[in-house]
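Researcher: Re-running this chain for the archive, since the previous output was lost when a drive failed. Same request as before.
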Amino acid sequence: MGPGRDPADPDPPIDPVGPDPADLCPADPARGAPAMPRTTLFALTVVVLALAATVISALNAFWLGLVLWPLLAGVASNVIWLDRRRARILEASAAAQQG
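Model: Regenerated structure tokens:
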């Protein structure tokens, strides 16, 4: 609890600056690179499985699968792209703050 805060107030104070970029994209100390977010790993798994399902659908002549699985792979690949873009932006803002 910070100074000047009422102990009966259950709401935490709001940080006007926002979260620390280092907290959002923690660095891997062994490599010195930011760790890959869990959502990126899940999305990568979905892309691989959806592409495999597309191939299986084509081999089994399941035409609906040829439409649905590539769409799912496309959405998941967009999640990967957005996560990596966010990580690059956070890295750039952290580097700019350090000088």
